[in-house]
Amino acid sequence: MPVLPPPSTGFDLDVPILIVGAGACGLVAALSATDAGAEVLVVEADAAPSGSTALSAGLIPAAGTRFQIDAGIDDNARLFAQDIQKKAKGENPQALVDLLADRSGDVIEWLADRFDLPFSVVTDFDYPGHSRRRMHGLPTRAGRELVDRLRSACEAQGIDIICNRRATSLFVEGDRILGIQLESPTGTETLGCSALILACNGFGGNRDMVREYMPEIENAVWFGHDFNQGDAVTWGDALGAETLHLSAYQGHGNVAHPQGILITWAVITQGGVQVNLRGGRFWDESQGYSEAARAVLAQPDSVAWTIFDSRIAAIARQFQDFKDAEAVGAIRTAETLADLANVTNLPEDALATTLNALPTDGEDVFGRQFSAPPLRSPYCAVKVTGALFHTQGGLKIDDTARVIRKSGGVFPNLFAAGGAAVGVSGSGDSGYLSGNGLLAATVLGHIAGAEAAYDMKKEMPNA
């Protein structure tokens, strides 16, 4: 049973604030609560902090930061909110969009100033849907570095992170969460808490839920964290919590196949294209990498070749994943179109016709606007497929990240953030604006941690 009455014998351990999940969301929530003076404990199902964050590029969109100002970028929360809603065709709750956009810059600067995370803005290419360059990342442009630095910051603050502990049930009395039940390598444990923060991401690893809510992507490669089993939604259903946009998700149509390495979308935005096994293009790649998953999966053998050149490859090398793909031979190179056809096993005539037809400036037959320099020798290519990265629907929350009840009001001590909560990507895949996942993870994590800590202070004013 996902929801249980409190154990008659009491809990094995009681903590003020309990956080389920040690990806970016849970770790930011822990830092936020601790920074506000509260005591926290983080539990993680995996053997080490990771989550979907570690599989991403680790880029967080934020508006109006000093990093943007230093780079000469004029941006603000209003523009950011407009971009989010435009990509999602206005399907997001406006209050949630405004909240994330307004707080994004503060959270980035807090992480940089308080915990020495060395952010910088990606300034050499644009991400689809963003009217300003606002993607903030760490030196390797890899999510693994983001998780590792957040974990190190937690350790420096004395925050306990207990791994190999999977939360299986909630203990509830009335509308208050009293604790959780855990499965550990040695058996069952119970933890009591005054506040619970769900930072356990979505349900992309649960094939039954994916089939139910987003059947069009059920056959995609799963590129998220296997413990994303939909626990937050399952508990929410049992509690009578409200959910929203469970059909929303982030896909990616540029995952090296069969190596399973994420290839940055910069190879497309800088002028690259995708062709199918017949050597022809099949869609407007500028729409975004989330939509690309379905577009690629619809092609013969569910694969495509992403074609670019050495100029673009030089830009892509700022990402560790791209360098990893080169190291294992996923990136093919060729001096001529004939060589390119040979290394990709694509029909030479069709491939040459496709690439020679690319406009140097203006719109193509798919409606894509080209303004980058034309592709030139030496050429590069990588075989890719479509993947599901993470779901974007989840528990509905208020502006304090508290979970909203179907019957009205909120659960006073239950918070949801990141993939456990509804995101700002509308109701499908096309509403995903680059970085939406980590935007919600970090900003909502920060809010949930601070609000839970504030509650602890109210309960213990002299503490």
TrEMBL record:
Keywords: FAD, Flavoprotein, Oxidoreductase. GO terms for molecular function: oxidoreductase activity. Its cofactor is FAD. Pfam families: FAD_binding_2. The keyword Flavoprotein applies. It comes from the Bacteria. InterPro entries: FAD-dep_OxRdtase_2_FAD-bd, FAD-oxidoreductase_2, FAD/NAD-bd_sf, Succ_DH/fumarate_Rdtase_cat_sf. Residues 17-427 form the FAD-dependent oxidoreductase 2 FAD-binding domain. This is Fumarate reductase flavoprotein subunit. It comes from Marivita hallyeonensis.
